[in-house]
Specification:
mainly alpha, single chain, elongated, 9 helices, Tetracycline Repressor, domain 2, 2 domains, Arc Repressor Mutant, subunit A
């Protein structure tokens, strides 16, 4: 009987944790980690302060759990973009679809807004983000090896993958920041974020075309 009761309890716990992290992500995105309180998170999550402390000892632990969610979102999206079905398209379409998909994730994911608006709050997350870029670059190496029209030396293939991933990551973040600044301005020129995404496509395509065309 004890074993049977444990399953719904675990389900309720997982559901409560999901509500806590979602509430915290919105609080951190809207107000910043420092200004957010455990009480505000509990109120938004429709739970008690004590329930939050059952799972997380402090705001840093909550922030890092949200960071882990964001990194999982990135891994899952990248896996879809470099899947066998996706790779049947011409490589330029794959590059453009990848940039557009990550730009969409950044526009719609509250975990992204919570993390990157407070990006220096946790050194652990910064290191995890750097490790993820290295992981994605390793996967990109395999993709480039399959798409290449000429032989690429292993060291150069690693370089191509690293430069592509790091360039994409930097320009996506810059595009997000410029779009956010544009939305917050009362007036001014057109959204530079969209223009930066277009330039990112040009830069990465031209960088790769000597090897993939």
């Amino acid at each position: 009987m004890k074993k049977r009761r444990r399953v719904p309890a675990q389900d309720r716990s997982r559901e409560r944790v999901a509500r806590i992290l979602d509430a915290a992500a919105h609080e951190f995105a809207d107000h910043g980690v420092e200004a957010s309180t455990i009480e505000a998170i509990a109120e938004r999550a429709h739970t008690s302060v004590g329930s939050i402390y059952q799972f997380y000892p402090n705001k840093r632990a909550i922030y890092e759990a949200i960071g882990d969610q964001y990194l999982a979102e990135v891994r899952a999206l990248f896996a879809v973009l470099v899947s066998e079905d996706a790779m049947r398209a011409p490589w330029r379409e794959v590059v453009r679809a990848t940039i557009d998909a990550f730009a969409s994730l950044h526009r719609t994911s509250v975990t992204f807004r919570a993390i990157w608006s407070n990006v220096f709050y946790s050194r652990r997350f910064l290191h995890a983000g750097q490790a993820l870029n290295r992981e994605l670059a390793e996967r990109a190496e395999v993709v480039f090896g399959r798409l290449a029209k000429k032989k690429i030396a292993p060291a150069h293939k690693k370089l191509l993958a690293t430069v592509s991933i790091e360039t994409l990551s930097a320009l996506l973040l810059l595009s997000h920041d410029r779009s956010r600044a544009h939305r917050g301005a009362s007036r001014g020129p057109g959204d530079q974020g969209d223009a930066l995404l277009g330039e990112a496509k040009v830069i990465i395509e031209r960088y790769l075309e000597p090897w993939l065309d």
